[in-house]
Amino acid sequence: MDYCLRELEGKQAHDPLFMKKMNNNKSTTTTTDTTSSIQSRRCVFVHGPIIVGAGPSGLAAAACLKQKNIPFVILERSNCIASLWQLKTYDRLRLHLPKQFCELPFMEFPFDFPTYPSKQQFIKYLENYAERFSIRPKFNETVENAEFDGDIGCWRLRCLNSNKGGVTTEYVCRWLIVATGENAEAVVPNIEGVDEFGGVIRHTSLYKSGEEFRGKKVLVVGCGNSGMEVCLDLCNFDATPSLVVRDSVHVLPREMLGKSTFGLSMWLLKWFPLGVVDRFLLIVSWLIFGDTAQLGLDRPRLGPLQLKNLSGKTPVLDVGTLAKIKAGHIKVRPSIKRLKRHTVEFIDGRSENFDGIILATGYKSNVPYWLKEEDMFSKEDGFPTKPFPNGWKGKNGLYAVGFTKRGLQGASMDAKRIADDIEQCLEAKAKHGS
Ligand SMILES: Cc1cc2nc3c(=O)[nH]c(=O)nc-3n(C[C@H](O)[C@H](O)[C@H](O)COP(=O)(O)OP(=O)(O)OC[C@H]3O[C@@H](n4cnc5c(N)ncnc54)[C@H](O)[C@@H]3O)c2cc1C
């Protein structure tokens, strides 16, 4: 297959007509291109697909292609693989789901890893994965623009290399695999008075541990898995956290009846309808936690799995935060109205002094900023518009891996499908000789 691909694409790259079309179109690729020095820009024709992003999804797609001897290039904006995990997560982080649900294709977690591997263990697993499949991304390459050129039937990517004094390279390829993740950019809410506030304000992507907040009063905004866990971490470092809860939230124990809640839910779903499994999860949670609304954590009207299916909103898997809330070590607060120098005013009229604010306000996809296409991705949220399991494939050789809101399992499913599809495409091409 490798040889066949090189030959087919090689023919194109040496076809003077194809090259002429490519060069003709250069000045019309993007508006900014016309002002940049087109002649000095490097242009690279890639044999096989380009994968944008070297997180777990990009690595999974790369391994699946490697197994089929399909060559590819991975472009990664940071200087390492899995940059979300290496650079933007807190020290105490562990996989939220048991390891068997977080494996990438063709490689299990080591037997001696715990059920919930630590961040360092997960990074080690990914490094070994890249090593095993000889995956070598091009680092410090930020894709700023990608557009399909109908004249040459290829994708053109404009890429900025932050290491080489901002050199721009144009990559041209037949297939484009988007693996930039559901968590590409931090979401920072607009809070009135943010410039007035005298303490530290930090998104969780920059929070490492509670050490720097020892003895301080800290307000954590957002009650997803990260917000809950940061509160716990702050408690462990003798800080005094309060948690802003703006929405209703499902908090479930991480384990029920001696099994992981996630694993148990997946198993039950094989036998029972979703509504029944939801009811079961809520009853067991109630038996373990009591009524979470009493603690200021109202439950949504829809059950946890139904809500996840409809909106992608993940239930919080509790690792001890709820006990701290019950014990009064973590206070629950409503939305912020505005900030003053040392004070936070809440919408219920109360005011309180804080030394710092941690924004556990989540992340968003960055696809709409760089991918110029009309069909596959929503301009609003940067996710595929087709619902799961059909969001992985678009038109003109465009693919998405890791946008299913189903974690690493979803990414692995996408990666296998994409490699199969590209293989079929190559086989069809080889058969028809075009
Ligand atoms: C705190 C936390 C805990 C989690 N725990 C779990 C868990 O236990 N189990 C689970 O299944 N999922 C979990 N997730 C979900 C998470 O999305 C996945 O674990 C995983 O990181 C997704 O991989 P990805 O490759 O799709 O995205 P990412 O890991 O975000 O990787 C995307 C890569 O693309 C790069 N990139 C972005 N834009 C560009 C560009 N324009 N040009 C070039 N490169 C670019 C980024 O630098 C990044 O390296 C967790 C997420 C978070 C935030």
TrEMBL record:
<protein>
    <recommendedName>
        <fullName>Flavin-containing monooxygenase</fullName>
        <ecNumber>1.-.-.-</ecNumber>
    </recommendedName>
</protein>
<keyword id="KW-0073">Auxin biosynthesis</keyword>
<keyword id="KW-0560">Oxidoreductase</keyword>
<dbReference type="GO" id="GO:0050660">
    <property type="term" value="F:flavin adenine dinucleotide binding"/>
</dbReference>
<keyword id="KW-0503">Monooxygenase</keyword>
<dbReference type="GO" id="GO:0004499">
    <property type="term" value="F:N,N-dimethylaniline monooxygenase activity"/>
</dbReference>
<dbReference type="GO" id="GO:0103075">
    <property type="term" value="F:indole-3-pyruvate monooxygenase activity"/>
</dbReference>
<dbReference type="InterPro" id="IPR050982">
    <property type="entry name" value="Auxin_biosynth/cation_transpt"/>
</dbReference>
<comment type="pathway">
    <text>Plant hormone metabolism; auxin biosynthesis.</text>
</comment>
<keyword id="KW-0285">Flavoprotein</keyword>
<dbReference type="Pfam" id="PF00743">
    <property type="entry name" value="FMO-like"/>
</dbReference>
<dbReference type="GO" id="GO:0009851">
    <property type="term" value="P:auxin biosynthetic process"/>
</dbReference>
<keyword id="KW-0274">FAD</keyword>
<dbReference type="InterPro" id="IPR020946">
    <property type="entry name" value="Flavin_mOase-like"/>
</dbReference>
<dbReference type="GO" id="GO:0050661">
    <property type="term" value="F:NADP binding"/>
</dbReference>
<comment type="similarity">
    <text>Belongs to the FMO family.</text>
</comment>
<keyword id="KW-0521">NADP</keyword>
<dbReference type="InterPro" id="IPR036188">
    <property type="entry name" value="FAD/NAD-bd_sf"/>
</dbReference>
